[in-house]
Amino acid sequence: MNLALRDIRHKLGRFLLTCAGLGLLLGVALAMVGIYRGVVDEALSLARALQADLWVVEGGTRGPFAEASRIGGDTREAVARVAGVTAAGSVTFQNVEARAAGTATASSAGAVLNEAGRQRVGALLRIQVVGHEPDRPGGPPAIAEGRGISRGRLEMVLDRSAGQPVGAMVEMGGLRFRVVGLTARAVSSGGDPLGWITLRDAQDLQFRLNAPAARRAAAGGNAGTPQDTVNAVIARLSPHADAEAVAEQVRRWKHLGAMTAAAQEEVLTRSVVERARRQLGMFTGVLLLVSGVIVALIVYMLTMDKLREIATLKLIGAPDRTIIALVLQQALLLGGASFALATVLILSAKDVFPRRVLLGPEDIAAVAGVVLVICLLASVLGVRAALRIDPAKALG
Amino acid sequence: MGEPLVELRGIAKGFGSGEARVQALSDIELTVEAGEVVGLRGPSGSGKSTLLNVVACILEPDAGLLRLAGETVWEGRWARGDLRALRREKIGFIFQFHNLLPFLNAIDNVALAMTLGGTPLAEARVRARALLDHLQVGKRAVAMPAKLSGGEAQRVAIARALANSPRIILADEPTAALDSERAQVVMELLRGIARDQRAAVLVVTHDDKIFGSFDRLVNLRDGRIEGETRPRMAAGAQ
Ligand SMILES: Nc1ncnc2c1ncn2[C@@H]1O[C@H](COP(=O)(O)OP(=O)(O)OP(=O)(O)O)[C@@H](O)[C@H]1O
Ligand SMILES: [Mg+2]
Question: CA-CA distance, A121 to A228, in Å (whole number)?
Answer without folding.
Answer: 34
